[in-house]
Design goal:
Layout: E1 3-7, H1 13-32, E2 48-52, H2 62-65, E3 69-70, H3 77-80, H4 90-102, E4 106-113, H5 126-143, E5 149-154, H6 178-190, E6 195-200, H7 207-222, E7 229-232, H8 242-253, E8 259-264, H9 271-287, E9 293-296, H10 320-331, E10 348-350, E11 370-375, E12 388-389, E13 395-397, E14 401-407, E15 410-411, E16 414-418
Parallel strand pairs: 2-3, 2-9, 3-4, 4-5, 5-6, 6-7, 7-8, 8-9
Antiparallel strand pairs: 1-16, 10-13, 11-12, 11-14, 14-15, 14-16
Helix pairs in contact: 9-10
Length: about 425
C-alpha cells in the first residue's frame, strides 16, 4: 500500500480549523444522502453487465451502462513488459483504481497468451522462460492482490494462440494439459480468492472447438486443476441461431464449470437487425442459470475492434440495441444464477506504512495512533478491529481510492489517496 497525501494549503490556524469543519460537514452529508452520478442498469442485479476500456481509457459515461470492467489491451504482458524488466502499469492501474473507487468488479486480461506476449521471451532458454513467467505473475500479484477475476490463459486451442513457451511450464505432458494445470496452480498460489478463468473464442460456436473445450474442461477437473470458470468470447455467436448457441453453452456447463460470456459483440451495422439479435441472444445469456456475468466487447461506434459492434455514438446517441439492453436489464434484476457468490469482494492484508500529515489535527503529534478510514461516501474502511494502527501493525482494510482519516473526534486536514 502506498499512501500519498495532498495537503490543503492554509495560512493560519483558523483556516485549518475551518477546513476540518468543512470536511466533517461533507462527510456527514455524504453519509446521510449518498447519490451516485449514474445508476447502471445491472446495479443490484443478480449478474453483472460489463464492458471494456475505450482506446485505453474509461469514458465518463461508463457507469451509466456497465458495472464490470475489463481492459482491452492494458493488462496484456506485451503491453506491460514490452521491454524486459521495464514495467508499464499505468493502464492497468487506472482500471484497478476506477473499479475500486466505484465499487465494481474488474478482470485482469490476461496472464498467458501466445499472441501479445513480449517477444524477448523467444530468445530465452526454457529455464529462463520459467523464471520470467514466475516473475511476471509475482509482479502482477504484488500490484493487484485484490483483483476479482483473471483470464489466466487466453486462446490455447491448438490452432489459436497457445504460448510458444508452454514447454517451459511442462508442455502437454501426460494429461495433455500439464502446462495449463501448472499455470493455474501458480495463479492460485498468488490469488487465493480470485476467479481463475480459461478464455477462448469459437467455443460456443463451432462444433470441433466446442468439443475440444469440453474435453479440456473435463481433463482439468479430473486432474484437480485450480481453474474456476470457462470464459467464452462469443464474438461469432451473433451469426448463429440462438438455439444452437444455447445448446453449446449447455454442453460446456455440463462439465460443472460456470460460464462467463467475456467478449460478446454483434457486428451488425443495421440498427434493427442488431437489436433483434441482442433481444434474442442476450435474453438467453441473461436467463441462463450457469452464466454469472456478461461482458460486451466495446460500445462506442467507430472505436471497437470490429465494424458494426458499437452501441453508442460518440455524441451520446444510443443505437436501438443499447436502449433495449438497458431497459431489459433494469426490468430483470433477478435472473436465474447458480453462482451468485462467485465474484466476491476481496479484502487485502495491507502492510503498515508511514503517513505524514501537514498539518496534523489539533493536538496530534504521535505518529502511532489508531486511525479510522472513511471513504468519501462516509463508509468506514473495514479493518481487523475497526481501526488501523499506523506504524505499529498491519490492519486488514478494504478502503481504496480517496479517503478521510479520523482519530477520536478529529478528522485529518488532508484527503488521502490509497493504492
Amino acid at each position: 500500500m502506498a499512501v500519498n497525501t495532498r495537503s490543503l494549503k492554509v495560512s493560519s490556524k483558523q483556516k485549518i480549523e475551518l477546513v476540518s469543519t468543512v470536511l466533517v460537514l461533507i462527510l456527514t452529508l455524504l453519509i446521510l444522502a449518498p447519490v451516485p452520478l449514474f445508476a447502471q442498469p445491472a446495479k443490484g442485479a443478480n449478474k453483472f453487465l460489463g464492458n471494456i476500456t475505450t482506446w485505453n481509457a474509461v469514458r465518463p459515461d461508463y457507469l451509466k451502462y456497465w458495472n464490470q470492467l475489463t481492459g482491452e489491451n492494458e493488462s496484456k504482458w506485451a503491453t506491460i513488459e514490452g521491454t524486459r524488466d521495464k514495467m508499464n502499469w499505468k493502464g492497468t492501474d487506472a482500471i484497478a483504481d476506477f473499479s475500486r473507487k466505484n465499487g465494481i468488479p474488474w478482470k485482469f486480461h490476461c496472464l498467458i497468451w501466445g499472441s501479445q506476449y513480449p517477444r524477448w521471451m523467444d530468445n530465452l532458454s526454457q529455464s529462463e522462460q520459467l523464471e520470467e513467467i514466475t516473475e511476471w505473475l509475482d509482479s502482477v500479484a504484488a500490484r493487484y492482490p485484490d483483483v476479482q477475476m483473471i483470464d489466466v490463459i487466453n486462446e490455447a486451442y491448438p490452432s489459436h494462440k497457445p504460448p510458444p513457451f508452454k514447454n517451459a511450464l511442462g508442455g502437454d505432458g501426460a494429461t495433455g494439459y500439464d502446462w495449463m494445470i501448472k499455470i493455474f496452480k501458480m495463479a492460485r498460489d498468488r490469488w487465493p480468492d480470485a476467479v481463475l478463468i480459461y478464455n477462448d473464442y469459437n467455443t460456443i460456436e463451432w462444433n470441433s472447438e466446442v468439443d475440444w473445450q469440453v474435453r479440456m474442461a473435463n481433463a482439468m477437473k479430473k486432474n484437480n486443476s485450480e481453474m474456476d470458470a470457462i470464459g467464452v468470447q462469443a464474438h461469432d455467436a451473433w451469426k448463429i441461431a440462438t438455439s444452437t448457441v444455447k445448446s453449446n453453452i449447455d454442453k460446456l456447463a455440463a462439465t460443472g464449470y460456470p460460464i462467463f460470456v467475456t467478449e460478446y459483440d454483434i457486428g451488425e451495422s443495421n440498427d434493427a437487425r442488431q437489436k433483434q439479435i441482442m433481444q434474442e441472444q442476450f435474453t438467453m445469456f441473461w436467463n441462463h442459470p450457469k452464466i454469472p456475468g456478461i461482458t460486451y466487447w466495446g460500445y462506442i461506434v467507430g472505436r471497437t475492434w470490429r465494424s458494426g459492434t458499437g452501441l453508442l455514438n460518440d455524441g451520446g446517441a444510443e443505437r436501438p440495441a443499447l436502449t433495449w439492453l438497458v431497459d431489459f436489464v433494469k426490468s430483470h434484476p433477478e435472473p436465474p444464477n447458480d453462482y451468485p457468490d462467485l465474484v466476491k469482494e476481496v479484502t487485502v492484508d495491507v502492510p503498515s506504512r508511514n503517513i505524514s500529515f501537514s498539518p496534523l489535527p489539533t493536538g496530534m503529534s504521535d505518529n502511532t495512533i489508531n486511525w479510522q478510514i472513511f471513504d468519501l461516501q462516509g463508509r468506514a474502511g473495514r479493518a481487523s478491529n475497526g481501526t488501523m494502527l499506523i506504524n505499529k501493525k498491519p490492519g486488514i482494510v478494504s478502503a481504496n481510492g480517496c479517503f478521510i482519516l479520523k482519530t477520536g473526534n478529529h478528522y485529518s486536514k488532508t484527503v488521502n489517496e490509497m493504492h
